[in-house]
């Protein structure tokens, strides 16, 4: 996932700044998130649930949900297979699956499983 091209901005928030990487701050009830890679203002993210204190991953580049889910599946399944309910709970905690959504019906998960060469039942 690469950061977006530099845009001209009077505020300077679109300029890379290593000191701002991953920062989140609130100004007048508005949260500003900064890219964890380059420090630019980060309008895109996943796994963000501010009301629970979960900051998630923010980036200045559009997020490819299939790539994010593929990365997630590689990490959580590295130790072996998980029960579907456990995998869904981890996906929800990561902000990749809706509260009432099931993995078997999520298009992005289907694409990620296909890109990993996994069968519908989660085996390879």
Kindly describe this structure:
The chain has 124 residues and is an alpha+beta fold. It folds into 2 domains: 1-62, no CATH class; 65-115, no CATH class. Helices cover 25% and strands 11% of the residues. It has 3 helices and 4 strands, in the order ββββααα. The strands form 2 sheets. A two-stranded antiparallel sheet has the order 1-2. Strand 1 and strand 2 form a beta hairpin. Helix 1 (65-76) crosses helix 3 (107-115). The longest helix is centred in the middle third of the chain and has 12 residues, at 65-76.
Residue share in helix: 25-40%
User: Which sheet architecture does the biggest sheet show?
Assistant: 2 strands, antiparallel
Instruction: Tell me the span between the first and last alpha carbons.
Output: 25 Å
Query: How big is the Rg?
Result: 17 Å
Number of DSSP-assigned strands: 4
User: What is the assembly state of the chains in this entry?
Assistant: single chain
Order of strands across the main sheet: 1-2
- In N-to-C order, the SSE pattern is EEEEHHH
**In percent terms, what proportion of residues is strand?**
5-15%
Q: By helix and strand content, what is the structural category?
A: alpha+beta
Low-confidence stretches: 5-10
* DSSP summary: helix tally: 3
What is the general shape?
elongated
Number of domains: 2
How would you state the average pLDDT, rounded? 77
